[in-house]
């Protein structure tokens, strides 16, 4: 303790116009300096430190509150998104079922219309074949009739002379006259 009091007493012996110097006695100067510095810090820094800690505490609490609100909002959005997802999945299932039913219905309609078209084409084909057969038969008949007529005319022209021709015409006229009298 004597060293502590000696350091205060020695202040009176320092020359006023003297030079600046360091006291190298660590045991005498450091505890006093530390005590003074700590006392000043505690006295003046207590309020500042308390305010800083209170501000920090408020910021942390505000951040926690904001985080909780954001979390609640995120949970609500997640629930809404899940509800929309369920709704969309149900609609997708409904569309899928309806789509398959519609596809099957369209498939059957297409098969039926194709079958009807094939039947119509078959009928058109048969009608065309029948028409072509009738046309061919009529053409052959006309050719046969033409040839028979030409043959008959050729035979008549070669066999008939003028006198026979006149007698045939007279006989035919007579037959027509008799038929006319019967009709009247």
Descriptive overview:
It contains three helices and no strands. It is 89% helix and 0% strand. It has helices spanning 2-9, 26-159, 162-183. The longest helix is centred in the middle third of the chain and has 134 residues, at 26-159. It is mainly α and 184 residues long.
Shape summary: rod-shaped
- Total strand segments: 0
How would a crystallographer describe the biggest sheet? none
Residue ranges: pLDDT <50 for 5 or more in a row? 11-15
Helix run count: 3
Helix content: over 70%
Strand content range: under 5%
Mean pLDDT value: 82
The string of secondary-structure elements, in order, is HHH
Through-space gap between termini: 184 Å
Gyration radius over CA: 67 Å
Structural class: mainly alpha
Oligomer: single chain
């Amino acid at each position: 303790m004597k060293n502590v009091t000696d350091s205060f007493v020695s202040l009176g012996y320092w020359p006023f116009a003297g030079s600046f110097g360091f006291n190298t006695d660590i045991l005498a100067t450091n505890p006093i300096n530390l005590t003074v510095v700590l006392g000043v810090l505690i006295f003046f820094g207590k309020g500042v430190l308390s305010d800083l800690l209170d501000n920090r505490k408020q910021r942390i609490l505000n951040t926690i509150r904001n985080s909780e609100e954001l979390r609640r909002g995120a949970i609500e959005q997640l629930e809404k998104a899940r509800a929309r997802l369920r709704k969309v999945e149900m609609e997708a299932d409904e569309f899928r079922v309806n789509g398959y039913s519609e596809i099957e219905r369209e498939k059957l309609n297409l098969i039926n219309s194709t079958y009807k078209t094939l039947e119509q084409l078959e009928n058109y084909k048969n009608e065309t074949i029948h028409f072509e057969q009738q046309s061919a038969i009529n053409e052959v008949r006309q050719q046969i009739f033409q040839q028979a007529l030409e043959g008959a005319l050729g035979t008549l022209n070669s066999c008939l002379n003028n006198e026979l021709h006149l007698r045939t015409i007279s006989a035919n006229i007579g037959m027509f006259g008799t038929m006319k009298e019967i009709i009247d």
